[in-house]
Design goal:
It is built from eight helices and no strands. The chain is mostly helical. It starts with a helix and ends in a 10-residue tail after the last helix.
């Protein structure tokens, strides 16, 4: 897996650079930034830092999963060759394409017929991005649940629930519930550093798990004795 590591490193470098500017602003170093209201700018920049952190989280997880999907497609995997978790995800995804109170019995019958034919004919499995259902809802619990769903093994911890804190603040900003000057005003530079380092460490563990899963084709039955 190449793209996930490139995306992660790019976003991480941006965040580390941005954080270094925040450190200087916190010191009131006017040689770095000098406005008529540096304290206000600092509060706004702290909130923007939260957005950058969430952006890194979502970009990393989505990129990793899409690389796995691409590898499954490239390997021409079919229903009979993949592990039970992948079978369940694909089957549920296909059924949900016609799920709804207004769906007719005929629609369900046609979909079931198509699923049976795909299994019988060993049609390659294809996953689309929308199956991930990620819409600003990523925290540690959601990410680890996603990995568990595909049987991706990982070592990642967020004991202080920083990812959930970032998710909530990100949504408050995105939905206009809080202003940039207010949303992160109580977070100190030390708080931001701890949040940053925890999230980077968490994602590093997830990336290692995804990479091992993809490189060793652990979605295949034959690779899971």
């Amino acid at each position: 897996m190449v793209e996930i590591n490139e995306i992660f490193e790019e976003r991480k470098n941006e965040i580390e650079f941005y954080y270094s500017v925040l450190v200087e602003l916190d010191k009131d170093n006017k040689d770095v930034i000098n406005t008529f209201n540096n304290p206000l700018l600092f509060r706004i920049m702290k909130s923007n830092f939260i957005l950058m952190l969430y952006n890194m989280v979502e970009a990393t997880v989505i990129t990793g999963m899409l690389e796995i999907f691409a590898q499954i497609k490239e390997d021409n995997c079919n229903y009979s060759t993949v592990i039970s978790e992948i079978k369940d995800i694909w089957r549920d995804y296909e059924v949900k394409k016609v799920y709804g109170q207004t769906s007719s019995l005929k629609s369900y019958t046609e979909r079931v017929k198509r699923i049976v034919e795909d299994i019988t004919n060993e049609t390659p499995i294809v996953f689309a991005r929308e199956i991930l259902a990620i819409n600003g809802n990523l925290n540690a619990k959601r990410i680890t649940a996603l990995c568990d769903e595909y049987r991706i093994q990982y070592r990642a911890s967020d004991k202080k629930a920083f990812l959930e804190q970032v998710r909530q603040k990100r949504n408050s900003l995105s939905h206009g519930d809080e202003s940039f000057s207010n949303c992160s005003r109580d977070l100190t530079i030390s708080d931001l550093e701890e949040i940053k380092d925890t999230i980077i460490g968490f994602l590093t563990g997830i990336i290692k798990g995804m990479t091992n899963y993809c490189d060793n084709r652990l979605y295949l039955i034959d690779n899971n004795p």
